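Retry 2 of 3 after timeout on previous attempt. Resubmitting C-alpha cells to design endpoint.
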C-alpha cells in the first residue's frame, strides 16, 4: 500500500442527497467518512502496532467509546496495569509496559482484535490521505452510511463507485457551494462512475444525466424521480441545450479534458475523458475502434469457416 493517496471512493447513489437533503456539508461529510473508512480496510494491519496506537489514544484521547470501555474494564480488573506516572512513555518514545499483555489479550478475543485493527486501519488511512479529524466520529458516520448502502444494494444490486480527489471533497466540505457548483460536482461524479479506472468511456447523454442524479439504472431512476428536486434536475439536463452547456462548463473548469461524439453503426456515443486531451482521445478511440472492428471481423470469418466445414461434411456424406 502506498504511503500517500489522495482519493476517496463512495457509491454513486449517495450523490442524490446533495439535491434532496438541504445540508451540503453533512452530505459531503458522509461521502468523505464512508470513503475514508472503506479505504482503511485496504491496509494490512499489524496487531502490535494496532495495540500501541489504541493505548496511545487511551492515554492521550481520541479513542472510540467502545475501545475506551474495553480498556477501562481491563485496567479495572488488573488484566492491564495503568501507567499513572508516565502515561506509557519511556523517555520520548511511547512504549507502554502493558503492550505485550494487551496484544496477548486481543489474540484470544476476536471482537477486541477487530476493534483494534479497525481503529488502527483508520489511523493509517487518515495519515495516508493527509487528513485530520475525529476518528471515532468518522467510524460511526461511515458505519451508518454503510447500512444505507447495504439496504440500497439489496434492492438495486451493486452500485458503481465514484473516485474523487480529497482536495475536491475538502473544497466542497469547507465552502458553501451554489446549486450550479453542486450540479457540476454531481455531473463530474456521474461521469467518473462511468469511466471508472479507464482513460475514457463511450457513453450517452441519458446515461450521464441519469448518473448525475445518482441513478445507475432505469429502475433506480424511476424511484429517484419521485423526488421533485431530482425530477427537475433530470428534466432540465436531459434537454440537449442544457446538457451541452453542462459539458462545456465541465470542460472549462477542467473536470473533463476532452469529448468526442462518434457513431458506431446506428448507435451514437459521446467518448469522454477526464485524463486525455482531445488529440490523445482521438488516438485512443481510434485504437479501440480498430481493435473492436478487427475482433468482430475475425469472429465473422471464424463463423464462415465453421459453416464451410459443415457444408463440406454434408457434401461428402451425401448419398
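Retry 2 succeeded. Sequence:
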Amino acid at each position: 500500500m502506498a504511503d500517500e493517496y489522495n482519493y476517496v471512493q463512495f457509491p454513486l447513489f449517495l450523490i442524490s442527497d446533495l439535491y434532496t437533503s438541504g445540508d451540503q456539508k453533512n452530505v459531503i461529510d458522509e461521502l468523505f467518512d464512508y470513503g475514508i473508512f472503506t479505504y482503511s480496510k485496504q491496509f494490512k494491519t499489524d496487531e502490535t502496532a494496532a495495540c500501541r496506537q489504541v493505548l496511545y489514544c487511551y492515554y492521550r484521547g481520541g479513542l472510540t467509546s467502545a475501545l475506551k470501555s474495553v480498556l477501562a474494564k481491563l485496567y479495572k480488573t488488573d488484566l492491564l496495569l495503568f501507567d499513572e506516572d508516565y502515561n506509557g512513555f519511556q523517555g520520548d518514545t511511547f512504549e507502554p509496559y502493558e503492550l505485550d499483555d494487551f496484544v496477548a489479550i486481543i489474540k484470544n478475543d476476536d471482537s477486541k482484535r477487530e476493534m483494534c485493527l479497525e481503529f488502527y486501519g483508520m489511523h493509517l488511512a487518515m495519515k495516508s490521505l493527509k487528513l485530520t479529524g475525529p476518528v471515532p466520529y468518522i467510524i460511526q458516520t461511515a458505519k451508518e452510511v454503510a447500512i444505507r448502502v447495504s439496504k440500497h444494494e439489496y434492492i438495486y444490486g451493486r452500485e458503481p463507485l465514484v473516485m474523487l480527489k480529497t482536495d475536491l471533497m475538502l473544497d466542497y466540505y469547507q465552502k458553501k457551494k451554489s446549486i450550479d457548483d453542486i450540479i457540476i460536482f454531481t455531473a463530474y461524479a456521474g461521469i467518473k462512475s462511468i469511466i471508472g479506472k479507464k482513460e475514457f468511456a463511450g457513453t450517452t447523454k441519458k446515461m450521464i444525466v441519469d448518473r448525475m442524479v445518482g441513478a445507475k439504472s432505469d429502475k433506480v431512476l424511476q424511484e429517484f424521480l419521485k423526488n421533485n428536486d431530482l425530477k427537475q434536475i433530470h428534466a432540465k439536463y436531459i434537454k440537449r441545450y442544457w446538457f451541452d452547456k453542462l459539458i462545456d462548463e465541465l470542460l472549462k473548469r477542467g473536470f473533463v479534458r476532452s469529448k468526442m461524439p462518434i457513431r458506431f453503426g446506428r448507435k451514437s456515443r459521446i467518448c469522454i475523458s477526464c485524463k486525455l486531451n482531445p488529440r490523445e482521445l482521438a488516438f485512443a478511440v481510434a485504437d479501440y475502434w480498430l481493435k473492436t472492428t478487427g475482433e468482430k471481423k475475425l469472429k465473422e470469418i471464424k463463423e464462415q469457416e465453421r459453416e464451410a466445414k459443415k457444408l463440406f461434411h454434408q457434401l461428402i456424406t451425401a448419398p
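Attempt log closed. Strands lie at 7-11, 89-90, 93-94, 161-165, 201-203, 258-264, 267-273.
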